[in-house]
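TEACHING EXERCISE
Course module: macromolecular assemblies
Task: Read the component lines below, then compare them to the predicted structure of the full complex.
Student: A.B.
Group: 4
Components provided:
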Amino acid sequence: MPLNIDFVTPFVKSTVDFMTTMAQVEVKAGKPFAKTDITAMGEVTGIISMVGEKHTASLAISFTKSAIVAITNNMLGGTIKELEMDVIDTVGEVTNIVTGGAKKLLVLKGYKFGISLPSVILGKGHSVVHTTKAPVVVIPFSTDNGDFFIEICSMSLKKEKVN
Amino acid sequence: MPLNIDFVTPFVKSTVDFMTTMAQVEVKAGKPFAKTDITAMGEVTGIISMVGEKHTASLAISFTKSAIVAITNNMLGGTIKELEMDVIDTVGEVTNIVTGGAKKLLVLKGYKFGISLPSVILGKGHSVVHTTKAPVVVIPFSTDNGDFFIEICSMSLKKEKVN
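Instructor-supplied answer key:
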């Protein structure tokens, strides 16, 4: 199954928009690559699903502790140091807003999705496995306070899934 | 927001059906309760989303290592001892089939959903936070080889989400 790169540009654009405007964090997107093994992610990961009649996709956005703590402090004007509730809420919010922004751009390409509630995974050294044969695209991002990355797995559906 | 118990019976029934027929594992459902804090889950967790026009829900099914290894060996006729790829695949499959079974029962109650691809989370002591103000229902299950539990978080949507 070929890598679906339709999703890359909308998510890069939506992430950069969010980080530079709402979080006021300078961010640089790296070169996307295909995920080939089960690698451990950051310490905190937001997961969200996009479910449509013809396509389904799942997204994981995983942060190093230093990156998400800095982003949260920028957004809330705080001096948080640990992965407390405000940070978890921020991960959920970033996941939701970035996906919502990408969705608007994907609509222009003919994709129609509903978006799930985000879930946030906590735990040092956790990994996320997307249970599908479709390739997973990883987009790395770097900030002055550490890295984060987005994994996207998208699939065309043969039959209608929303009924 | 009140606990939505519409989801409890369909998921209990679907889980017990799956475990007794496809996995040939005797399972006992415990009393459902409301999740009130961030508690660590099992060692491996399947996550799936249900996205409809009027409702959205997310489900996490989390297994102790001993429980899921026994279930996998029952299903595949193997002698696996660790959380290897077959076990991860089984978690994805259980998550998918149990949710598909519950969906059929929820349709009879007027719920209409599309189901996302499942994701599987690995990592000792990870936790899953459902980022919503809606209460999370936990249904505990026990087997001879250990416990697993299902967390369900469901929410009515004010506006249409699948567009």
